[in-house]
Amino acid sequence: MRPIYLIKEYSNITRKILIDMAYLSSHKIIRLPKIYYEEGIYLPYKNNNQTEKYYLDKSKIISEDQNFYFFKFPFKPDNVEEITVK
After folding, report:
1. What is the pTM of this model?
2. Whether the Cβ atoms of residue 34 and residue 69 lie closer than 8 Å to each other
């Protein structure tokens, strides 16, 4: 499985956050450390040959523990868009 990144865009800056691939592949859930969470983080995915953004907002948290938020991963890994950031 290839690496999958979440994206956070600021004025002229794009930040990539690597998803815990081991957890994702075994549980089909995104496990995000709470220290990396902020409003506006999204996962780019392909929908009918168009790139769309799946925002990870607080309403999409399915559970949490002391250190992590857990989000549903509603895509096939092949639908997630490759990220190229310079």
Report:
1. 0.84
2. yes
